[in-house]
Amino acid sequence: MSAIKQLKVTLVKSVFGRLQAHRACVKGLGLSRMHQTVQIAATPENLGMVRKVEFMLKVEEV
Fold first, then answer.
1. What is the predicted pLDDT for the residue at 2?
2. Whether 62 contacts 42, CB under 8 Å
3. What structural domains does the chain harbor?
4. Torsions phi, psi of 51, nearest 5?
5. What single string gives the DSSP state of each residue in the chain?
6. What is the pLDDT of residue 1?
7. What contacts 30, CB < 8 A, 6 or more positions away?
8. Rounded to whole angstroms, how far apart are CA atoms 60 and 62?
9. What letters, b where the CB count within 10 A reaches 16 and e where it falls short, cover 16-53?
10. pLDDT score recorded for residue 4
Protein backbone atom coordinates (compact mmCIF):
# COMPACT_ATOMS: atom_id res chain seq x y z
CA MET A 1 0.00 0.00 0.00
CA SER A 2 1.42 3.37 -0.97
CA ALA A 3 1.37 6.43 1.26
CA ILE A 4 -1.10 9.19 0.46
CA LYS A 5 0.59 12.17 -1.16
CA GLN A 6 0.65 15.41 0.79
CA LEU A 7 0.17 18.94 -0.52
CA LYS A 8 1.34 22.18 1.05
CA VAL A 9 -1.32 24.83 0.36
CA THR A 10 -0.88 28.58 1.03
CA LEU A 11 -3.59 31.23 0.70
CA VAL A 12 -2.09 34.08 -1.35
CA LYS A 13 -5.23 36.06 -2.29
CA SER A 14 -7.94 37.33 0.03
CA VAL A 15 -11.38 35.72 0.29
CA PHE A 16 -12.94 39.18 0.67
CA GLY A 17 -15.52 39.76 -2.07
CA ARG A 18 -15.37 36.17 -3.35
CA LEU A 19 -18.27 33.82 -3.97
CA GLN A 20 -19.64 32.01 -0.92
CA ALA A 21 -18.70 28.66 -2.50
CA HIS A 22 -15.07 29.82 -2.87
CA ARG A 23 -14.97 30.98 0.75
CA ALA A 24 -16.35 27.60 1.82
CA CYS A 25 -13.65 25.74 -0.13
CA VAL A 26 -10.88 27.83 1.45
CA LYS A 27 -12.33 27.19 4.92
CA GLY A 28 -12.74 23.50 4.12
CA LEU A 29 -9.04 23.29 3.31
CA GLY A 30 -8.29 24.63 6.79
CA LEU A 31 -7.20 28.11 5.73
CA SER A 32 -8.49 31.12 7.66
CA ARG A 33 -6.11 33.99 6.87
CA MET A 34 -3.74 35.27 4.23
CA HIS A 35 -0.30 33.62 3.87
CA GLN A 36 -1.35 30.75 6.13
CA THR A 37 0.03 27.39 5.04
CA VAL A 38 -1.49 23.98 5.76
CA GLN A 39 -0.49 20.47 4.77
CA ILE A 40 -3.35 18.35 3.41
CA ALA A 41 -3.72 14.85 2.00
CA ALA A 42 -4.17 14.65 -1.79
CA THR A 43 -7.60 13.01 -1.65
CA PRO A 44 -10.16 13.51 -4.45
CA GLU A 45 -12.25 15.71 -2.12
CA ASN A 46 -9.35 18.00 -1.25
CA LEU A 47 -8.09 18.13 -4.85
CA GLY A 48 -11.55 19.24 -5.98
CA MET A 49 -11.54 22.11 -3.49
CA VAL A 50 -8.01 23.08 -4.50
CA ARG A 51 -8.98 23.04 -8.18
CA LYS A 52 -12.00 25.26 -7.52
CA VAL A 53 -9.96 28.04 -5.87
CA GLU A 54 -6.51 27.42 -7.37
CA PHE A 55 -6.28 31.06 -8.49
CA MET A 56 -6.16 32.05 -4.81
CA LEU A 57 -3.66 29.41 -3.68
CA LYS A 58 -0.02 28.42 -3.98
CA VAL A 59 0.22 24.63 -4.06
CA GLU A 60 3.37 22.52 -3.59
CA GLU A 61 3.86 18.75 -3.38
CA VAL A 62 5.58 17.54 -0.21
1. 66
2. no
3. 6-61 (3.30.1390.20)
4. -60, -35
5. -PPPPEEEEEE-S--TT--HHHHHHHHHTT--STT-EEEEE--HHHHHHHHHTGGGEEEEE-
6. 54
7. 38, 40
8. 6
9. eebeeebeebbeebebeeeeeeeebeeeeebeebbebb
10. 85
Give the C-alpha separation, 48 to 44, whole Å: 6
Cα–Cα dist 34/45, whole Å: 22
Instruction: Return per-residue pLDDT of the chain as tens, 62 residues.
Output: 568 899 999 999 999 999 999 999 999 999 999 999 999 999 999 999 999 999 999 999 98
pLDDT score of 42: 95
Find the distance separating the first CA and the last CA of the chain, reported in whole Å. 18
Q: Is there a contact between 41 and 4 (Cβ–Cβ < 8 Å)? A: yes
